[in-house]
């Protein structure tokens, strides 16, 4: 155990940046999930319907995650290029999903015309949409070529936001089941996997670099400029920040050169944040006071869950410094987010409603949105 004064390392630029980024990503994920739900209801667009997890699917997540973890632990070198290609396609889609609302706002604000240029999968495809797809592909290609950690973080953040928006939970009962299962999953694979597999499986997988398929193809074809293409890539399954952010030297490839946080440590708590934000929104609509949701009292569960996330993340980072060992972040994040929500809802006598969920949709109180 390190002395407490070493907690001052939490004030390093890399620590502060990681801490603030994780909180902002969690906030953005929950907000985008709420807005995406309202968009789908308003447009009645079932082609992009979200997946709502039931009990059996929830219980399968830690099992399938464990199998995937072991697969990557033993066969990562064999499947890394396939994983990289799949990640690239998913990243383009996620980037498009995250950026498209801002493009729509810009078009609306400035009255820009956006003519249709073709149809794709029975849906109209406009000029701005085509340009946005090209832009997203360009970002992913830039990541392929450079392997830059900023681009890696951008792709990871977009994947996190898209995941939380499309994979939803029915109620707090399902959410608690998921969080508790992943709580145990995270503790086992970080603290105890070395006893069974001879190495820290979670850490090994999280720090492995994938072979760059672009470099492989360019090398086999003897293309010019090969020296500018990185051989290895950090997959965007985590956000990373170099410890020497204010230094003059470039960060190396060593794990110790970076601070990192897995996407699951943002995405899983964000699913709870998205659930309680939708609940807060529904309650404010039921109160017939639209302005209530904009006030701090109108988002009481979301505010407490987000504060709990910040405290849990701070605790995880502090524990990592004091113990000088990897920490399962969900060990701290699950009780700090789920606990306040359950306790507050019990105090407000709303636990039953949160526990079982409500069939109400976020737009049920808006008759105009319900009309075809």
Overall description:
65% of the residues lie in helices and 8% in strands. The chain contains 12 helices and 8 strands. The protein has helices spanning 13-43, 55-110, 127-146, 149-166, 172-197, 201-207, 213-220, 264-286, 300-323, 330-347, 351-356, 367-370; strands at 51-53, 116-120, 123-126, 167-169, 210-211, 232-233, 238-242, 258-262. The strands form 4 sheets. A two-stranded parallel sheet has the order 1-4. A two-stranded antiparallel sheet has the order 2-3. A two-stranded antiparallel ribbon has the order 5-6. β2 and β3 (123-126) form a beta hairpin. α2 crosses α5 (172-197), α5 packs antiparallel against α10 and α8 packs parallel to α10. The longest helix has 56 residues, at 55-110. The chain is globular, with a radius of gyration of 22 Å. 32% of the residues are buried.
């Amino acid at each position: 155990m390190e002395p407490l004064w070493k907690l001052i390392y939490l004030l390093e630029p890399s620590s502060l940046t990681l801490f603030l980024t994780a909180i902002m990503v969690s906030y953005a994920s929950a907000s985008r999930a709420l807005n995406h739900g309202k968009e789908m209801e308003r447009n009645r667009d079932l082609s992009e319907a979200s997946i709502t997890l039931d009990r059996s699917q929830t219980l399968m997540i830690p099992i399938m995650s464990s199998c995937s973890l072991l697969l990557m632990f033993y066969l990562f070198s064999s499947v890394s290029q396939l994983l990289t290609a799949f990640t690239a396609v998913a990243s383009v889609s996620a980037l498009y999903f995250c950026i498209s609302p801002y493009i729509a706002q810009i078009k609306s604000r400035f009255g820009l015309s956006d003519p249709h240029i073709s149809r794709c999968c029975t849906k109209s495809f406009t000029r701005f949409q085509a340009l946005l797809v090209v832009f997203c592909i360009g970002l992913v290609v830039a990541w392929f070529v450079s392997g830059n950690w900023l681009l890696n973080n951008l792709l990871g953040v977009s994947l996190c936001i898209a995941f939380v928006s499309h994979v939803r939970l029915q109620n707090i009962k399902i959410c608690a089941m998921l969080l508790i299962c992943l709580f145990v999953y995270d503790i086992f694979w970080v603290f105890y996997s070395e006893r069974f597999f001879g190495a820290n499986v979670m850490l090994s997988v999280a720090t492995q670099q994938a072979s760059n398929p672009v470099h492989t193809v360019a090398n086999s074809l003897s293309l010019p400029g090969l020296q500018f293409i990185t051989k290895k890539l950090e997959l965007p399954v985590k956000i990373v920040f170099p410890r020497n952010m204010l230094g003059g030297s470039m960060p190396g490839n060593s794990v110790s050169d970076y601070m990192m946080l897995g996407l699951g440590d943002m995405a899983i708590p964000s699913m709870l944040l998205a659930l309680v934000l939708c609940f807060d929104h529904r309650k404010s609509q039921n109160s017939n006071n639209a302005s209530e949701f904009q006030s701090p009292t109108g988002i009481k569960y979301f505010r407490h869950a987000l504060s709990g996330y910040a405290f849990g993340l701070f605790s995880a980072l502090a524990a990592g410094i004091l113990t000088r060992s990897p920490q399962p972040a969900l060990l701290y994040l699950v009780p700090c987010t789920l606990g306040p929500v359950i306790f507050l809802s019990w105090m407000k006598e709303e636990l039953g409603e949160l526990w079982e969920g409500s069939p109400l949709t976020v737009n049920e109180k808006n008759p105009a949105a319900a009309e075809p």
